Amino acid sequence: MTLKNNKIYSLISLCARARRLCSGNFSVEKAVKNQSAYVVIVAKDASDNTKKLFDQKCNYYGIPYYEYGTKDELGKYSGNEMRTSIAILDEGFGNQIIKYMNVNENMEV
User: Which InterPro entries does the record associate with it (predicted)?
Assistant: First the structure.
């Protein structure tokens, strides 16, 4: 695990402790529809249907969408069991996560 990964996961943990995160497909979809989500993260090992659903919904509502980590990792850092998807409900946390996600994507190329 690189330093960038640690930063993203620690931001997710902080967000969860601040109660500015929702997790689980139903809650995340609701947050996207009522536009309270700033960033949506779906686990890389989620089903293709789940990825497609959130990719399309986030695209429609103009919400940044990322595939990152595993269901176990997203669950662990959001304070739950396995989670396929999480939504960040805070603009500050959201902007930080977007920044680290973009750095992370550039490093993987």
Answer: Ribosomal_eL30-like_sf (IPR029064), Ribosomal_eL8/eL30/eS12/Gad45 (IPR004038)
